[in-house]
Amino acid sequence: MLSPESALTFAVASLLLIVLPGPSVLFVVGRSLSLGRRGGLLSVAGNELGGLVPIAAVALGIGALVSESIVAFTAVKIAGGAYLMYLGLQAIRHRRAPVDEPTSTPTSGARLLWQGFVVGATNPKTIVFFVAVLPQFVDPDRGGIPGQILILGLIFTVIAFACDSVWAVVAGTARAWFARSPRRMSQMNATGGSMMIGLGGGLLFAGNKS
What we know:
Elements: H1 4-18, H2 23-60, H3 62-68, H4 70-93, H5 109-121, H6 124-133, H7 145-178, H8 182-204
Helix pairs in contact: 1-7, 2-5, 2-6, 2-7, 2-8, 3-4, 3-6, 4-5, 4-8
């Protein structure tokens, strides 16, 4: 069982890391600018659920294998980066569509959750982070190492969900103001899409895992 001291230390370290704007924040802001508060919050939920996949992989020892395998790591990186770029292109493609037009954005909550889930599960930087960091806070003498890693991962997920939700609400609120002008709305959708394309391109062309 994870010690309270390790859990608290990890929670503080996670909070300091999460509050700094990074790829996750760019994804959430980009989605919220394109889809609004609802779409942003659902994307956050899906992203954090997807993040549980690498956490479980690390707990089972699979994460280390993926991190050390150039082929597996590159495959995950390409899949995640390409999917982000696809979502960005979709946002730009429909940037001039009316806000209430059904085809302008995916309105299905399940679809929004799934899109966020895919992004969270295929983020190679998340895999490397969890492989490198989670084991540092595990106490082998307390036993149940996979369980300790899962608890740490859940702590990180809860903190990330809370912080990213704030970004989603703020960006989604800004979108509501831009929606009053079709021209501003088009620019906002294009901005959100461009952010996701840039983030996806960063994953694709950032070099190897080192």
